[in-house]
């Protein structure tokens, strides 16, 4: 057994040292019985990789060999699970059969030399007895062996299963929380949860939600699978009771015990384990259950359980929150209901008080203003009037306070002059204060900033404070101060009254708090006046405080902010004209009574009604209908109005509606609270009826306050009077509304007639269902003789359904936005009942009543069907024109107008111009192509446009800027005027064809012909042309001069002048002409002058379209002098060849002699060293015997080298046959031969695997011997030489060998010189040598059809790069 202790530092198994448990396992493993073999036989590449693996803390595995045998370290051992340590030494396919299809391509990639790997790769391993969901980051890195090929795979891996699954679950929980947060009911929560749980089926195969109410059995709410199927598949009830009692989850180890059909989740395997989780409320009670199927590919651990519990907790938490919110909402609703009940009570009680108050105040005021009133009764009537007013004030105060307390008091703030308004309100008390012997002092400073107030509320504030000051002040004065303080306004009411004790100051603004038994003008009061003042000031964004000293008086200070930033935007209103105070009468009357004044000359608030108040009407009296369920009220109002109007009465709303339809009165007065049909219901019926809708309606109600008034006006009433009311005011308002309505009706009639005469189609729709209020007569052109007035648009035009028109009306009515549609196509049923498409341009805009409420939609439309159809025809024509332009095979464009704007242009024209559409479209052609200016095109285009005469040009030169450079191009173009149907010229159409290439080609041909003619003439060449059909020959003078014949000579005559020996040459040349179409031959001709000349003829055959030869064109040249020179040169070459052959024979003879002379001494060394070994070998010491052996080996190699040199010098390249050379063995031989020198220099040779090559062994030996010897020679004196021999980029044809050293190097600029003979870069006394070594290396490499180069850096060494063929296909010396 191999143990760690047996692995010494010098052992070849030391790489197995360490490595922990796996190191021990590998050392103790009998590897000789495996395909890897004994450890001693393992290659160095495996040893190095395994050593790194075993001593690393990173999970690493090594798969070795083609079968991928597995080796790994301790950090990697948990990855195979229970397959460890069985997996050690086994193949990857044996260890990982379940994931082999996924990882096999990765191994193949690595063995091809490419690294591979993956991130968060899902590898479903079976390492714990089941298929497991596993994720890994891993790399596959190829391990190269000694032969330079991939022998194994280095596998570094990190398991990321925990992170991937945790991130997945965390993301799900986050999204679940976001989705559930939007739910408003528990049902929403459960439905959303089931929906989301379907997306996490890798962790939760299926989920079922059960709800439980109290002690009832849980019911299946929903499931991620078919709920009905889940319910039917239950074999027995789930352990709900156990979970409820335990209060926590219960694991169900075998789902088959409960389910007959188990739903399948994401994975192929069925889930066999489940869990039942309680859904607990915040109070701890169980509200439901979550039943989940667990993943068959994950073990149920603490993290898994926490995830399931988190899902359940998220649902339960949201459900609990919703329950809490629901409880709070119900509580709020209960409080709101109480508030509504209280408000209703106050409203009803107010109504019940106000009606009798009206019937009291009305007759009393009538009697007090009667001229014949007996003075004896007047005093009593005044007492009755004062107390009725006081009761009215108390009712109003209670109602106002109840609204404030309920938060229903709605303010309407507007910019006011606070100084003037406050002074005016306070001044109404001046008479009462002065009657009491006191003074009212008012100090109002200028207020520069804007102050916003609700005027009615401010009246109550000021009247209460001044009234309160007067009540508790017996003498002295009351002072009102209005002043600005920084960004606020202070209103101060100070008195010199009895004051308030310090211990009671904090209570003065409390509800119903009264200071008892203090000196005052009266002990009457409800105790809510100052409380109401404080609340009203708060509604203004202000504050109020009081300071006081008993016996000296009190000061109430109100502070209000300036501006409107502190106020709600929806409560701001524009300034309006304000009438005199409507509330001060009651306060002043009460103050006068405190002062002891029992009567006034004219009671405040009472107006005399006489004949001067009557309104005269031109025809008959207007008719007024009064609806009130109180008979006394009906009689009272009828008596008030009867003098000026015809008054009809009705006992309730239903009775009033009947009489409205019957009598069509000019105005309706109605109470709000009535049986059968109340005032609001009656108002709705009136406004909805087309004949009654414009009838003025006045609400007469006991419901006081701004809110009730606003509600009535918003409902559509024209006016709102609160009981008790002034008789005069009622008469005036009735008269005014009747008169206004009469004027409005007349105006409407005039507008309607104007409307009907408008040339544009106008319709008016009213209400949310868009009922035709006005149906324009022009509609009849589309729909025939119909009238849609009173019909909804859906009733009138059902064919609009689905066309989006009704939806547009809805949008305008609901949002108040104006909608415009241009040329909208709408399908109608025409007057013949057939579908007809109309194109309309129309707008919808809301129309409002005087109060700013949307009443309906105004429709203005123009039928543009004819115009659009005509425009479409025009556009279609334009499109056709554009299509013609686009498809045109030539460049085309259209210029519009007198400025020649480019309207249409095709791609061919843009290419010709060298421009884009953006450069020219919509611009004048001279703006888009400024280079055209000054080239004459302005005048041409203007002439065509103004006269209509066409213009064309051929091969016209134009300068265009294309690709940023000006260039001259040639173009054939035509301009044609474009005429409209009526004959007017609207533009110019241009067609262009660029002919630059043709023009330039023609010019090139012409120039070439000229040059050829000059060349022929200068070269003294003769040309000829032979018509092959007629055999007619024509030639130049030079042609006949060279031939030595006259111009009249025929072809046959010229042929007879050819030397008889050359006639066959001519025949062969013409045979070749028939095949190739080309003629070339050299012959001798005998001229008419008797001279013989050498002539060279060349020619080319031309053909007609069918391919028949028709013409032979050619050139003839006199080459007599060339032939004579060639003959002389041939003689000189032959003589030089003979001389070289003799020199070569002499060199070969010298080589034989030299080699013989060299061999003889080597033989002697061999002979005598052999005899020395044989005769005295036993006597020699061992070291001497080693020397003798080396002498003999060196002598043998010397003989071989001499013989090789002899053979190289005596054999031709063709006679030598290359041999297969083992370069690794050859290098070892060289290392042995240089052993002494290497030991002397302590040199080291590092060799990598070098493939075999073909070549001459002795020469290849000499090549590497010279290079290695050169490296040793030029080594650094201070550093042992290291020589590295390696290969790079080896392929099937070539081998590239690098011989690198760490020597002295040289300047790279001398790299070409080192291969020259006798070249030395260093002095002889520094480095010995002949300067032939590297030159010989170059010759040897070139001899083998290779190359040799060198790269060098001074003081860093040199690298020689030798490229040699693996196979020598031929073996000649380089020419």
UniProtKB/TrEMBL annotation:
Enzyme Commission numbers on file: 2.7.13.3
Domain Response regulatory, residue spans: 623-738
One GO MF term attached to the UniProt entry: phosphorelay sensor kinase activity
Cited InterPro entries: CheY-like_superfamily (IPR011006), HATPase_C_sf (IPR036890), HATPase_dom (IPR003594), His_kinase_dom (IPR005467), HisK_dim/P_dom (IPR003661), HisK_dim/P_sf (IPR036097), PAC (IPR001610), PAS (IPR000014)
PROSITE patterns for this protein: HIS_KIN (PS50109), PAC (PS50113), RESPONSE_REGULATORY (PS50110)
UniProt domain Histidine kinase: residue ranges: 348-564, 1153-1368
Modified residues annotated as 4-aspartylphosphate in this record: 671
Reaction catalyzed: ATP + protein L-histidine = ADP + protein N-phospho-L-histidine
Gene3D superfamilies: 1.10.287.130, 2.10.70.100, 3.40.50.2300, Histidine kinase-like ATPase, C-terminal domain, PAS domain
Alphabetic keyword roster: ATP-binding, Coiled coil, Kinase, Nucleotide-binding, Phosphoprotein, Transferase, Two-component regulatory system
SUPFAM superfamilies given in the database record: ATPase domain of HSP90 chaperone/DNA topoisomerase II/histidine kinase (SSF55874), CheY-like (SSF52172), GAF domain-like (SSF55781), Homodimeric domain of signal transducing histidine kinase (SSF47384), PYP-like sensor domain (PAS domain) (SSF55785)
Pfam families xrefs: HATPase_c, HisKA, PAS_3, PAS_4, Response_reg
Domain PAC: start-end pairs: 822-876, 952-1007, 1079-1131
Class of this enzyme: transferase
Keyword DNA-binding appears in the UniProt entry: no
Coiled-coil residue windows: 315-342
Protein name: histidine kinase
């Amino acid at each position: 057994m191999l143990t760690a202790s047996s692995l010494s530092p010098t052992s070849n198994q030391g790489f197995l040292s360490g490595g922990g448990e796996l190191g021990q396992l590998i050392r103790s493993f009998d590897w000789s019985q495996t395909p890897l073999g004994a450890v001693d036989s393992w290659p160095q590449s495996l040893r190095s990789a395994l050593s790194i693996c075993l001593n690393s803390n990173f999970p690493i595995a090594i798969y070795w060999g083609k079968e991928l045998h597995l080796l790994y370290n301790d950090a990697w051992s948990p990855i195979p699970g229970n397959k460890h340590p069985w997996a050690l030494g086994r193949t990857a396919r044996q260890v990982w059969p379940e994931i082999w299809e996924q990882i096999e391509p990765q191994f193949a990639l690595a063995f091809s030399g490419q690294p591979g790997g993956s991130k968060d790769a899902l590898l479903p391993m079976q390492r714990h007895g089941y298929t497991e969901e596993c994720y890994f980051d891993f790399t596959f890195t190829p391990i190269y062996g000694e032969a330079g090929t991939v022998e194994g795979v280095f596998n570094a891996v990190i398991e990321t299963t925990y992170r991937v699954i945790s991130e997945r679950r965390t993301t799900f929980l986050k999204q679940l929380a976001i989705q559930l947060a939007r739910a408003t009911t528990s049902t929403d929560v459960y439905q959303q949860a089931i929906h989301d749980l379907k997306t996490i089926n890798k962790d939760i195969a299926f989920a079922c939600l059960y709800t439980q109410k109290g002690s009832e059995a849980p019911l299946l709410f929903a499931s991620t699978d078919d709920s009905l199927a889940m319910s039917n598949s239950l074999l027995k009830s789930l352990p709900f009771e156990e979970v409820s009692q335990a209060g926590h989850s219960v694991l169900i180890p075998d789902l088959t015990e409960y389910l007959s059909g188990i739903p399948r989740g994401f994975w192929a395997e069925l889930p066999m384990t489940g869990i039942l989780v309680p859904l607990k409320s915040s109070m701890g009670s169980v509200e439901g259950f979550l039943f989940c199927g667990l993943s068959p590919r994950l073990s149920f651990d603490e993290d898994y359980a926490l995830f399931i519990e988190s899902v359940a907790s998220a649902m339960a938490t949201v459900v609990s929150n919703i329950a809490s919110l629901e409880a709070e909402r119900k509580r709020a609703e209960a409080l709101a209901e109480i508030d509504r009940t209280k408000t209703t009570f106050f409203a009803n009680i107010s109504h019940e008080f106000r009606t009798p108050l009206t019937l009291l105040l009305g007759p009393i005021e009538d009697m007090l203003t009667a001229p014949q009133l007996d003075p004896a009764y007047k005093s009593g009537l005044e007492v009755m009037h004062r107390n009725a007013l006081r009761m009215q004030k108390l009712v109003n105060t209670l109602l106002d306070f109840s609204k404030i307390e309920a938060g229903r008091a709605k303010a309407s703030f507007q910019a006011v002059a606070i100084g003037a308004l406050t002074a005016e309100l306070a001044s109404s008390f001046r008479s009462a204060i002065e009657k009491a012997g006191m003074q009212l002092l008012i100090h109002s400073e200028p207020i520069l900033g804007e102050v916003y107030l609700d005027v009615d509320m401010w009246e109550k504030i000021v009247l209460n404070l001044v009234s309160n000051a007067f009540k508790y002040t017996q003498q002295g004065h009351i002072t009102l101060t209005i002043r600005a303080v920084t960004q606020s306004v202070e209103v101060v009411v100070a008195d010199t009254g009895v004051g308030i004790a310090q211990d009671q100051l904090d209570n003065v603004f409390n509800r119903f708090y009264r200071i008892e038994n203090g000196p005052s003008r009266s002990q009457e009061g409800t105790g809510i006046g100052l409380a109401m003042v404080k609340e009203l000031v708060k509604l203004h964004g202000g504050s109020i405080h009081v300071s006081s000293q008993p016996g000296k008086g009190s000061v109430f200070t109100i502070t209000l902010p300036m501006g409107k930033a502190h106020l709600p935007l929806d409560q701001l209103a524009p300034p309006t004209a304000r009438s005199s105070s409507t509330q001060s009468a009651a306060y002043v009357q009460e103050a006068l009574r405190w002062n002891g004044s029992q009567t006034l000359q004219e009671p405040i608030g009472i107006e005399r009604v006489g004949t001067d108040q009557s309104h005269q009407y031109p025809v008959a009296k207007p008719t007024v209908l009064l609806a009130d369920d109180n008979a006394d009220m009906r009689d009272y109002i009828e008596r008030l109005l009867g003098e000026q109007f015809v008054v009809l009465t009705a006992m309730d709303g239903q009775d009033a509606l009947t009489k409205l339809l019957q009598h069509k009165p000019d105005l309706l007065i109605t109470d709000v609270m009535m049986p059968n049909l109340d005032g609001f219901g009656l108002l709705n019926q009136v406004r909805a009826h087309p004949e009654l809708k414009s009838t003025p309606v006045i609400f007469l109600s006991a419901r006081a306050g701004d809110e009730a008034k606003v509600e009535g006006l918003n409902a559509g009433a024209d006016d709102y009077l609160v009981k008790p009311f002034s008789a005069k005011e009622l008469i005036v308002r009735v008269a005014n509304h009747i008169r206004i309505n009469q004027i409005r009706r007349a105006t409407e009639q005039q507008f309607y007639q104007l409307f009907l005469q408008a040339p544009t189609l106008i319709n008016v729709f009213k209400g949310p269902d868009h009922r035709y209020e006005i149906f324009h007569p022009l509609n009849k052109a589309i729909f025939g003789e119909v009238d849609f007035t009173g019909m909804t648009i859906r009733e009138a035009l059902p064919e609009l359904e689905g066309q989006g028109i009704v939806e547009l009306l809805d949008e305008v009515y609901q949002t108040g936005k104006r909608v415009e549609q241009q040329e909208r196509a709408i399908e109608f049923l025409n007057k013949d009942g057939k579908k007809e498409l109309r194109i309309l341009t129309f707008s919808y805009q809301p129309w409002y009543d005087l109060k700013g409420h949307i009443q309906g939609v105004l429709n203005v439309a123009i039928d543009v069907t004819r115009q659009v159809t005509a425009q479409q025809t025009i556009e279609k024509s334009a499109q056709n024109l554009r299509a013609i332009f686009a498809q045109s095979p030539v460049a085309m464009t259209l210029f519009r107008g007198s400025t020649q704007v480019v309207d249409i242009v095709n791609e061919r024209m843009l290419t010709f111009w060298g421009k884009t559409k953006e450069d020219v479209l919509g611009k004048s052609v001279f703006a888009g192509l400024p280079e055209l200016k000054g080239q004459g095109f302005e005048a041409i285009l203007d002439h065509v446009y103004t006269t209509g005469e066409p213009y064309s040009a051929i091969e016209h030169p134009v300068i265009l800027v294309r690709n940023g450079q000006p260039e001259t191009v040639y173009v054939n173009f035509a301009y044609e005027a474009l005429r409209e149907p009526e004959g007017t010229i609207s533009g110019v159409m241009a067609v262009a064809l660029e002919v630059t290439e043709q023009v330039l080609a023609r010019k090139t041909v012409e120039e070439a012909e000229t040059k050829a003619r000059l060349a022929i003439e200068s070269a003294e060449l003769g040309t000829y042309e032979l018509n092959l059909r007629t055999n007619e020959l024509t030639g130049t003078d030079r042609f006949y001069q060279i031939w030595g014949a006259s111009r009249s000579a025929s072809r046959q005559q010229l042929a007879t002048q050819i030397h008889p020996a050359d006639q066959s040459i001519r025949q062969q040349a013409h045979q070749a002409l028939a095949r190739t179409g080309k003629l070339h031959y050299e012959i001798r001709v005998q001229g008419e002058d008797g001279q013989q000349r050498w002539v060279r003829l060349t020619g080319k055959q031309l053909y007609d379209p069918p391919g028949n030869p028709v013409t032979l064109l050619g050139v003839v040249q006199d080459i007599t002098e060339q032939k004579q020179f060639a003959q002389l040169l041939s003689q000189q070459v032959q003589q030089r060849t003979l001389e070289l052959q003799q020199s070569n024979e002499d060199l070969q003879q010298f080589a034989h002699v030299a080699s013989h002379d060299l061999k003889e001494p080597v033989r002697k060394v061999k002979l005598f060293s052999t005899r020395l070994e044989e005769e005295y070998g036993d006597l020699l010491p061992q070291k001497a015997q080693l020397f003798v052996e080396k002498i003999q080996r060196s002598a043998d190699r010397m003989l071989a080298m001499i013989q090789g040199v002899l053979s190289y010098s005596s054999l031709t390249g063709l006679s030598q046959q290359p041999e297969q050379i083992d370069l690794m063995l050859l290098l070892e031989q060289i290392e042995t031969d240089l052993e002494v020198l290497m030991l002397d220099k302590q040199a080291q040779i590092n060799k990598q695997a070098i493939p075999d090559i073909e070549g001459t062994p002795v020469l290849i030996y000499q090549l590497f011997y010279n290079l290695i010897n050169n490296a040793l020679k030029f080594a650094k004196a201070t550093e042992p030489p290291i020589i590295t021999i390696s290969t790079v980029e080896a392929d099937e044809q070539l081998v590239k060998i690098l011989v690198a050293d760490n020597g002295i190097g040289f300047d790279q600029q001398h790299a070409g010189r080192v291969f020259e003979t006798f070249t030395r870069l260093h002095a002889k006394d520094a480095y010995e040598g002949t300067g032939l070594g590297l030159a010989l290396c170059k010759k040897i490499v070139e001899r083998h059809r290779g190359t040799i180069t060198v790269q060098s850096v001074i003081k860093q060494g040199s690298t020689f790069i030798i490229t040699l063929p693996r196979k020598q296909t031929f073996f000649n010396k380089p020419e």
